[in-house]
Amino acid sequence: MDRYDFKIPIGPQHPALKEPESFLLTMHGEKISSMTVRLGYNHRGIEKACELQTYIQDMYLIERVCGICSHSHATCFIQAVEEIAGLQVPKRALYIRTLVAELERVHSHLLWLGVAGHEIGFDTLLMYSWRDREVVMDILAMLTGNRVNYSVNTIGGVRRDITAEHIPQILKAIDTLEERTKYYIQIATEETTIIKRLSGVGMLSYDDGVHLGAVGPTARASGIDRDVRRDDPYASYEDVKFAVITDKHCDVYGRAVVRVLELMESYKIIRQILANLPDGPIAVKAPRKIPAGEALSRYEAPRGEDVHYVKANGTDKPERVKVRAPTLANVQVVAHMLKDRYLADMPIVIAAIDPCFSCTDRLISVTDAGKGTKNTMTWPQLHSYSIEWHRKSGIDFSELNKKFKVPGN
Amino acid sequence: MTLMSKIVNWARIKSPWIIHFNTGACNACDIEIIASLTPTYDIERFGILLKGTPRHADVLVCSGPVTRQIKDRLIRIYEQMAEPKFVVAVGTCACSGGVFRKCYNVGGGIDSAIPVSVYIPGCPASPKAIIDGVVKLLTSLEEKEAAAPPKTAEAVEIKG
Q1: Are A381 and A303 part of one and the same domain?
Q2: Which of A149, A371, B28, B85 is the most buried (most CB within 10 A)?
Q3: What residue ranges do the domains of chain B occupy?
Q4: Interface ipTM
Q5: Cβ-based neighbours of B25, under 8 Å, separated by 6 or more
Q6: Interchain CB distance below 8 Å, A18 and B99
Q7: Above pLDDT 90, what percent of chain A?
Q8: Considering the entire predicted model, what is its pTM?
């Protein structure tokens, strides 16, 4: 560290960040020499809360891991539970799940486009894309009854059916959006200002992407051909034809191109689903108590691969639920992408992975215990707190520990 | 009400600048707050502008339950705002803690840390509900002689 080096703390409240996260940047002049991410402001303890509630109640809680990809988390969790219970979900229910999933991807990518436009000072793009996003929000509200947390899943199927009147309305909305998306593709590929601003920013080579475990559009923009929808099909993705979009730019520009082109693929999938929607029931009856077992479920959320692990113990409550959200996989990549880059590129590079820290914050991690973080819970503190908390509600292991003489307790 | 205070109150009602702070929300309310600022709902027509710093803002718009880690930051941001200041709690979590009420890392609603002027329930609160809440806040300012000075953070008991 020489006299030109200094540190800039960013967040938890900062105009460039939509969520409370803090980044500690070590600067050399105007270049970033290293970055530490401090997660945990959004940590609510959802995984623990899941263990205290029944599976049906958990579904509502899991949906609120993240409001933007709520259907992703809910479906991923439900898939794991259904696998343990050995339920045969009706085909129509799977089609409806896929439909809502793709509508969610459309809303999420349009949202990202706006946020990215805002971060580079192109606020007109923010206003345009968020105006178009309302079209898909209206469709989601019509299908599910809510604009954001759809609650369309239930164990063994879905809760709401699509009627014949819905289909022409969805198709009409998709036509409108497709036309608008073509305009965005034109902007992304022809507008010199955008190309100049985004090219070469936040470089991530193919090798680094594989090495650091990048997922989703971030990985696909570096040429990593990976998509759970194709590689490990769930819901009804086996029955639809779509292309996995990859790009060789390896920068923020590539990520923008991948996302706008993925929008076109989503429209394609929605049209195929509506054309081939099978008849039949929308749900099977699920038992309240799920037999003992464990399952891992994968899902391609708008931000990348989402992984849920569920362990059941034969009661109506899960024994363990673990969530690996896509942003957690991509956050390491950001630190790599920002190295030796300019401070001014930081907002767009962070925005380019489409971060969702409310998804990510399920572990209390202390990467930098600097000033002002004295109230941060360390792992041992959290551990003793959780034991104490459960002791109050009647779960006491101290007698058992004495009986079995567990070392260290 | 003196002429001066009338003018000040009129100016305050016509240009409430807001700052948005996520206190541990799931993002759903946050995107609905942004959606209400964009063309379809457009609350900018009431003179509402989203600002980047608490020192420029009159209204603190909070979403989400107050997590243990964010509590001190929330109080600090509230204290940085200039008087008179108002707090709007958006969403069920911000009102009461919602589905996260019993989680070990969540203290409760926004009012467990700072005083709140308007509660907007909903999971998430739709842009229409947010507009309704904002209009109610502005109307309540109109009715009062001058905007009543809110309690400071110290006056409220801080639990946890």
Answers
A1: no
A2: B28
A3: 10-147
A4: 0.85
A5: A42, A67, A358, B63, B64, B65, B91, B93, B94
A6: no
A7: 54
A8: 0.86
